[in-house]
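Contributing new records

If you add data, match the layout below exactly. Sequence lines come first and carry their own label; structure lines follow with theirs. Keep one chain per record. Anything else will be rejected by the validation script.
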Amino acid sequence: MPGILQGALFLLVICAGLMDLKSRRIPNWLVLAGLATGVILNGYFSGAAGIASAVFGAMVGAALFMGIYLAGGMGAGDVKLLAAVGAIVGPASLVIVFVLTGLLGGLVAMIVLLFRGNVSTVFARTIHLAGRWMQFDWPAIARMSDRRRSGALSLPYGAAVASGTLLFLIALRHQVR
């Protein structure tokens, strides 16, 4: 991945992560700039194949979080941020970013649960929610996973996406050397 793409990705996720931590919002102008940057720079470096990779990466990024968003488990800004990251890194590298993000996000969630002291309640709800997923009971899933419900565990997941992406960039830098 060319250095200018790495730099653009770094700036995107740092800004998005900090904004999400501060205001619990990731602005549209930021993710649109990330999407445009991914398409333009990938097109510049790799032509039509780069543009196709950026567009497919954005689509994969949006698709990975869309189910959770539709169920009420995360905000639209998180979905759009992962799409923008996908436009920059492409679909293959996005899978790595997604896994790293999930691991770091899960770790943070567990730490928050331990400090809040309600691990057993959340675990029981998660098991129940998984059962509803297997039954395709979408209305129940939406009610159970709504992050706006009182007492819901809510994390600024844009910060988790930023952390997973930064870990990816660190690994990428060490791989190149």
